[in-house]
């Protein structure tokens, strides 16, 4: 395949849930992160004229596309001295996010982010772009997740489905954690060959994005190998139980649907298969000493 026909598709999933600690403590952090995301997105488009971009906002109640705008593009006034495409990206993302936040229902209590569903939506968008691509064009797709939320084990099955679907579709998953380490998303990066970064500080966020995530791992596979990237973290491959949604070291696995439980259950709550109770282990009889 001619390298000139290769196109890099970057889908950014930005967590905008107001329940995130960094946003609760200082709402201005969302504006700071958004400006860095816009700068990073424009840097991706600047690398090659054929590069494509999509940005999704993951809120507490829904996931919406910030860019491109479905249907008719927004009426954006051109800024003197700025490339027209960059102006369109910046204005569209900010206007759509402001509208989404204003129309969102108010929170009575902190809620989890819909990250797993947002990544599944990104995979569907990538599949549609690949299906409608012109003949002879190769599209290298990747997803970048930017979040400060704590991962929820209740979405464990959706996470796993997304990770292995991305691996099958040859989609790289990169993750930038703004607050706490995310073990499940670390697994996704390791499965798909992506890069995981726990941001040490929010200052310099754009520099971290350009340094770690700007090179495309599929179009330029040697680029990331030559960069002095942060040391890889040890991936925690523990699974979450289906009963309490907690990560466990040892558990019981259903032989029919492969559901995982931290304690034995005579009936699988997922597929309703009935199991026999495990029999107690019989003690070995002690050998009698022979009298001499």
Automatic annotation (TrEMBL):
Assigned GO CC terms: transcription factor TFIIH core complex; transcription factor TFIIH holo complex
A Pfam short name: Tfb4
Keywords: DNA damage, DNA repair, Metal-binding, Nucleus, Transcription, Transcription regulation, Zinc, Zinc-finger
InterPro entries on file: TFIIH_Tfb4/GTF2H3, vWFA_dom_sf
Annotated compartments: Nucleus
Highest taxon in the source lineage: Eukaryota
GO term, biological process aspect, one: nucleotide-excision repair
Keyword Acyltransferase listed: no
One of the record's GO molecular function terms: zinc ion binding
Keyword Metal-binding: yes
Functional note: Component of the general transcription and DNA repair factor IIH (TFIIH) core complex, which is involved in general and transcription-coupled nucleotide excision repair (NER) of damaged DNA and, when complexed to CAK, in RNA transcription by RNA polymerase II. In NER, TFIIH acts by opening DNA around the lesion to allow the excision of the damaged oligonucleotide and its replacement by a new DNA fragment. In transcription, TFIIH has an essential role in transcription initiation.
Family the UniProt entry places it in: Belongs to the TFB4 family.
Description of how the protein assembles with itself and partners: Part of a TFIID-containing RNA polymerase II pre-initiation complex that is composed of TBP and at least GTF2A1, GTF2A2, GTF2E1, GTF2E2, GTF2F1, GTF2H2, GTF2H3, GTF2H4, GTF2H5, GTF2B, TCEA1, ERCC2, ERCC3, TAF1, TAF2, TAF3, TAF4, TAF5, TAF6, TAF7, TAF8, TAF9, TAF10, TAF11, TAF12 and TAF13. Component of the 7-subunit TFIIH core complex composed of XPB/ERCC3, XPD/ERCC2, GTF2H1, GTF2H2, GTF2H3, GTF2H4 and GTF2H5, which is active in NER.
Name of the protein this chain belongs to: General transcription factor IIH subunit 3
Source organism of the structure: Culex quinquefasciatus (Southern house mosquito)
């Amino acid at each position: 395949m001619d390298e000139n026909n290769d196109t890099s598709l970057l889908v950014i999933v930005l967590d905008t849930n107001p329940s995130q600690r960094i946003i609760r403590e200082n709402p201005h952090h969302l504006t700071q992160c958004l400006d860095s995301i816009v700068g990073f997105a424009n840097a991706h488009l600047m690398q090659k004229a054929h590069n494509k971009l999509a940005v999704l906002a993951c809120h507490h109640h829904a996931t919406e596309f910030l860019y491109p705008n479905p249907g008719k593009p927004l009426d954006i006034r051109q800024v003197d001295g700025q490339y027209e495409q960059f102006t369109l990206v910046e204005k569209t993302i900010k206007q759509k996010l402001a509208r989404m936040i204003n129309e969102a229902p108010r929170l009575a209590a902190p809620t989890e982010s819909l990250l797993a569903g947002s990544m599944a939506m990104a995979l569907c968008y990538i599949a549609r772009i690949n299906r409608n691509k012109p003949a002879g064009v190769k599209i290298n797709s990747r997803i970048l997740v930017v979040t400060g939320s704590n991962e929820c084990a209740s979405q464990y099955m959706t996470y796993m489905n997304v990770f292995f679907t991305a691996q099958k579709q040859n989609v790289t998953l990169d993750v930038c954690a703004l607050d706490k380490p995310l073990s499940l998303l670390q697994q996704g990066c390791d499965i798909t060959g992506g890069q995981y970064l726990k941001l040490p500080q929010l200052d310099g966020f754009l520099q971290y994005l350009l340094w770690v995530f700007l090179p495309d791992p599929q179009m330029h596979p040697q680029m990331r190998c030559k960069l002095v990237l942060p040391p890889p973290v040890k991936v925690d491959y523990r699974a979450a139980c289906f009963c309490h949604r907690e990560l466990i070291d040892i558990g019981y696995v259903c032989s029919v649907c492969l559901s995982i439980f931290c304690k034995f259950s005579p009936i699988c709550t997922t597929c309703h298969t009935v199991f026999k109770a495990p029999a107690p282990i019989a003690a070995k009889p002690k050998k009698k000493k022979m009298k001499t």
